[in-house]
């Protein structure tokens, strides 16, 4: 691998070819977005094929297929949860250039795809899903750290809104495409597409040059002046005036505990604003997992849809997220995290409650099939708008808080702990994707679909209240709190 980097000129004092465009902000953002897209696309591409693989290749009896599929999905989530904080630690160790661990994450994904393509046993498929989940944890953790160092905190909202919109396409179309490819050309088509995507992603990651790496060459002044007037602060640029008041509020006592010295990010978990941002990240994934677990079942029971038609119902849900994600990301950058985290979760309360209409006989008996389907799709689209609103506040708020602690405690942190932060965030997000389907499935079976969504709406209401209290707090409020604490 080191030879590859040498051949590309990244270990030489002479600037590599194409340094300007390879370190361009838009190219870096596209590369990270493509990495996240590939990870989610391959995850979704395999999901509809897994039951057939278990039956035809592994020769499992029908009675064991459902539980085995669930276990394989759980292995993916567990691997992502475990790998995310480890990736954060390693990324900070490679803080001079995070390209190497970023590429190694893709190598894991390639091995996972090959194992899925040739695996003949449950153990082999489980190993493949583990590698796939671990790769996802690496991509998200290191990718987010690269993003914030590239675009700066003030542009993070619109950037992440755009990336979430981009990868929503992967979540929408990959299961449909996987099912179609399997039905038309079999396993070769499914895994051929997967390996081709990994190849494209691999080339992009090798070509990408981080800003901090590009700054070591003579062309660095030109690079810092580019990107059409977009401010590109990095982790070295303070977001707040270097005032004694601001620093005092965020000062930390140097830890004596060995674990805290090695992982000073843990000291920040006492900050209620950061904890709220992490909770919002969990809720975002929790809601997504809930939709994944329940929409296909409602489609089958209420409309008699097969798997392909059920997948089409995710189009209004994800399509709204795709269209409005960048818009609300820009709004978060412009107007702050508190306003839009509150708006997003408040908006989700009625849209979640309205989902009960699709299973309410007093409503559905008055509608023909077309209007019944249109009603459900319309309410799903409204929920998609709410999900688009809550895409960016968590990441922006968490990054902003960590930036302030970093600027005030450079004796505690060896470098800005963005990778460790996003390792925790990725771990929590993966946990939400795991717990969401389990809780939603249990509630749906015990209290019904309408009441299940009422419970989720109530949780969104509580999250809106917590967001209003702790998100985007002003310095004067924090200082008042500090005075009370003392």
UniProtKB/TrEMBL annotation:
Main location: membrane
Domain Major facilitator superfamily (MFS) profile: 28-475
Subcellular location: Membrane
GO CC annotation: membrane
Keyword match Transport: yes
Keyword vocabulary terms for this entry: Membrane, Transmembrane, Transmembrane helix, Transport
InterPro entries xrefs: MFS, MFS_dom, MFS_trans_sf, MFS_Vesicular_Transporter
Gene3D superfamilies for the chain: MFS general substrate transporter like domains
Topology relative to the membrane: Multi-pass membrane protein
Keyword Membrane set for record: yes
Listed transmembrane segments: 26-53, 73-91, 103-127, 133-151, 163-183, 189-207, 265-291, 311-332, 339-357, 421-443, 455-472
GO molecular-function terms, A-Z: transmembrane transporter activity
Pfam (any one): MFS_1
PANTHER family: GH10249P, MAJOR FACILITATOR SUPERFAMILY (MFS) PROFILE DOMAIN-CONTAINING PROTEIN
Protein name: MFS general substrate transporter
